[in-house]
Amino acid sequence: MMLNWWAIIIGAIIAVVLAIIFGLVSFIYGPMLAVLIAGIVVGYMVDSDIGTGAIHGGIAGLIGGIIALILGLLIGSSFGLAGTIIGAALIIAWIVDIIIGAIGGIIGSAITGRRV
Fold it and tell me: Chain centroid to CA 93: how far?
C-alpha cells in the first residue's frame, strides 16, 4: 500500500487550522471535531478502501496532533502552566486524535461508496 502523502498533508493542515478556530469556541471538543473533519476529508481523498482511509486519517491525526501538541505546550507555558501536566494531557489528546482521525478516514472512505 502506497501512502498518499498529499492527502495526509492536506488533512494535517486542515486539522491544525480548524483546531485553532474551533478551539476558540470549545477548548476540548473543538480540536476533536477538527480532527474528525480532517479525517473525513483525507478518507475521501484517498482512492482506496475503508482500511486505507482509516490508516491515512490516523496518520493525518498523528501529524496534526504533533503540531497541536507543540502549539499547546508553547501556549500553555506562556500562561505559566506546568509543562509536565500540560504535556501529559496533550499526549493523551494526541492518542485520541489518532483514533478520531482514523474514524474520520473510515467515514470519508464510506461516503465514496468503496467497500472493504
Answer: 10
